[in-house]
Design goal:
alpha/beta, 25% strand, 230 residues, single chain
């Protein structure tokens, strides 16, 4: 399944128009091998695992995640993660040494890739159930040093020692835009990847333009957005 097809399925699921049954392992950004338990991606000769059980949710797990007050979009594997990772591999000069990943979801894929490049990476999500599954995935990749923590948008980040934040596909639900803006204003630079999704991306850009200089680049059927604090 190509990225654009998968985004359509994910969007329809979030809008409750159809069941969530995409074949997500067919995202074709990095080569991978399949085992009984996981997909193992080869990223610049580094192996990064994605647990199979995290790809397609059973209904009971989804109900449990939905009981959390934070949205459940991190339950799904979003193709923007891999696209952002690929872009940052090709443009490492954009990165600082310390990276804070926002809304990583279960996989933490992009954060793992950057950590494999020698960056100090903290991977975060605001949903406690999803965070527990993120920890499982990071344990499967314990050859790559990272840390993860619960972080909810809008909160002050204590002892902030990060110049750069990254995020993939975090603009869909506009009711969280104000909290997300509060969060990213704590960083000097934010690098994101996302499709337009009915203009939700463009509306967030409009909301944030008073605080940031913004570059929007089309890349592999999505947009890379670089927010540089004024």
């Amino acid at each position: 399944m190509k990225q654009k097809q998968l985004w359509g399925k994910l969007k329809n699921y979030l809008l409750q128009k159809e069941e969530y049954q995409p074949n997500i392992q067919k995202i074709e950004i990095f080569p991978y091998e399949e085992t009984n338990e996981y997909f193992e991606y080869n990223v610049n000769e580094v192996k990064i695992k994605q647990l199979k059980g995290q790809n397609v949710l059973d209904r009971d797990t989804l109900v449990k995640i939905n009981e959390n007050p934070i949205d459940n979009t991190g339950s799904f594997y979003w193709p923007s993660e891999q696209i952002l990772a690929k872009y940052l591999i090709e443009n490492q000069e954009l990165l600082s040494d310390n990276i804070f990943e926002l809304g990583s979801g279960k996989s933490g894929f992009c954060g793992l890739v950057l950590a494999s490049l020698g960056k100090i990476v903290t991977i975060t999500d605001g949903n406690e159930q999803i965070l527990e599954e993120l920890k499982q995935n990071l344990q499967e990749n314990n050859h790559i040093k990272t840390q993860c923590k619960l972080y909810r948008w809008g909160e002050v980040i204590p002892d902030l020692d990060y110049n750069t934040a990254i995020m993939a596909d975090c603009f869909f639900f506009e009711k969280y835009h104000n909290e997300l803006l509060i969060t990213i204003k704590q960083f000097k630079k934010i690098i994101a990847a996302a499709p337009s999704r009915g203009g939700s991306l463009e509306r967030f850009i409009e909301l944030s333009k008073d605080d940031f200089n913004i570059i929007k680049i089309e890349y592999l059927n999505v947009f890379i957005i670089i927010f540089q604090k004024k």
